Amino acid sequence: MKRLHYAWIIVSVTFLILLAVQGVRLSFGAFVEPWERQFSMDRGTISLISTLSFIVYGISQPVIGRLVDKWGARAVLSWSALLTGVSIFLTYFVTSPWQLFLLYGLGVSLGVGGASNVAASVLVVNWFSKKRGLAFGIMEAGFGAGQMLLVPGSLMLIHWFSWKLTVVVLGLLLMVIVFPAALLLRNNPSEKNAEPIGGLAEAEKETAPKTTALSVTGMFRMRQFWFLILPFLICGFTTVGLMDTHLIPFSHDHGFSTTVTSAAVSLLAGFNIAGILLSGIVADRWSSRKILCFLYAVRALSIVILIYSHEPYLLLAFAILFGLVDFATVAPTQMLATQYFQNYSIGLMIGWLSLAHQIGSALGAYVPGVIYTVTGEYTLAFYLSIGMLVLASVMNAMLREPASVIRDSAAVVEKG
Fold it and tell me: Signal sequence span per UniProt (predicted)?
């Protein structure tokens, strides 16, 4: 019987870490109404906690990259999971809003920033020189699985018991189960006297440093830089920012029961996983810019459905459609980044994309909260999001295919 390669244990544990840690982050919307009642805060102030969280998350990413280089992905992932668990557990003892800002806005957010794609991707690259796409797909699916399991799970625990018991359960999950599991990770195959899947020679060849051919100012002058960054900012605004923060309270405002809301969130997360995997497969076979143009247009259509979802079946229809295009934009966006900037630092470009997404997420959490506080509803925020998504679709349609851009890269270098 063939022995299981330890690389599959690595990717399985990484999946569990992202499921639990990112699932806690995505569960924020379940706590909005309980915290409003508990601490007498308006929706705008509650949204500001989420906004602070996204800002801390985004700013932390370059720092996390340096810590991974210095201490290794195993240490960063394990201790980040523990920090998230301790911070969410301690919210049980919160008695005033500033403590929520401190524990969630800083503590949880720093932990979530550490247990993110940055460290996880390094592990995948170290352990896989072949089947890397599959490994990345499994890893990325951890985000969707966390959304599918922990968001409705948190919502139901709050409904049946209280938000305080819920944070205790989430904290213990991370401290007692996820943190010990993270200690099974190894930074490199050499620590297990093994080689990466696909062999050491190919891994070294694939991860060899590339020559930098563009100046920073040259990159900033490229239209494709801004036409990737701005749509991805809009992506963050309309997904993690808007929906993960405000979908649950919006659903309750419309009179939907906790059961219907939980079903919608679960459907959204389940189809999100399907969309992630499908978009990665399609991106290998079709134009990524056309895929993105289509995905942003469909997302705008799904929000139109949400605005008029006065019946449960419409809310569930929205959840299915939005789920299919939720995180599905990540693979084609990263594919375009690697194609447009293959002669430059791809890591730096991915870093810019991640920062833009978090800025969008911060705005998407805060602005709709303020609009709700002023108008008493989310309608204006949803129409704003639809307009932004149409703009994102148009910007991707205006991009040139990567092959034609690469032919012109030499001219850009000379100008830089």
Answer: none
Q: Name 367's bridge partners.
A: none
Contact 251, 260 (CB under 8 A): yes
The span from the first CA to the last CA of the chain, in angstroms, equals: 57
Tell me if 78 sits within 8 A of 114, measured CB to CB: no
As a whole number of angstroms, the distance between CA 48 and CA 387 comes to 23
Distance CA 407, CA 410 (A): 7
Which residue's structure tokens are 């550490």? Answer: 114
Does residue 365 contact residue 248 with C-beta atoms inside 8 Å?
A: no
Please determine, for residue 140, whether its predicted confidence score (pLDDT) is greater than 90.
no
Per DSSP, the three-state class of 308 is: coil
Place of tokens 């693979």: 331
What is the rounded CA–CA span in Å between residue 22 and residue 115? 8
Tens of pLDDT along 368-383?
Answer: 988 998 999 999 999 9
**Angle between the N-to-C axes of helices 117-127 and 73-90, in degrees from 0 to 180, rounded to the nearest 10:** 150
Q: Please spell the DSSP secondary structure of 68-124, one letter per residue.
A: HHHH-HHHHHHHHHHHHHHHHHHGGG--SHHHHIIIIIIIIHHHHHHSSHHHHHHHH
Residue 310 CB burial class (10 angstroms; 0-12, 13-18, ≥19): exposed
The predicted structure's pLDDT at residue 85: 95
Q: How far apart are CA 345 and CA 214, in angstroms?
A: 9
Pairwise CA distance, residues 206 & 402, whole Å: 21
**DSSP-assigned beta bridge partners for residue 128:** 197
* Crossing angle (nearest 10°) for helices 346-375 and 379-398: 150
The helix (run of H) or strand (run of E) holding residue 255 is none
pLDDT tens for each residue of 291-316: 999 999 999 999 999 999 888 999 99
- H-helix or E-strand containing 186? none
User: Are 365 and 61 a contacting pair, CB within 8 Å?
Assistant: no
Task: Report yes or no: 109 and 101 within 8 Å, Cβ to Cβ.
Answer: no
Phi, psi for 78 (deg, rounded to 5): -65, -50
CB atoms within 10 A of CB 333: 26
Q: Max CA-CA distance within the chain?
A: 65
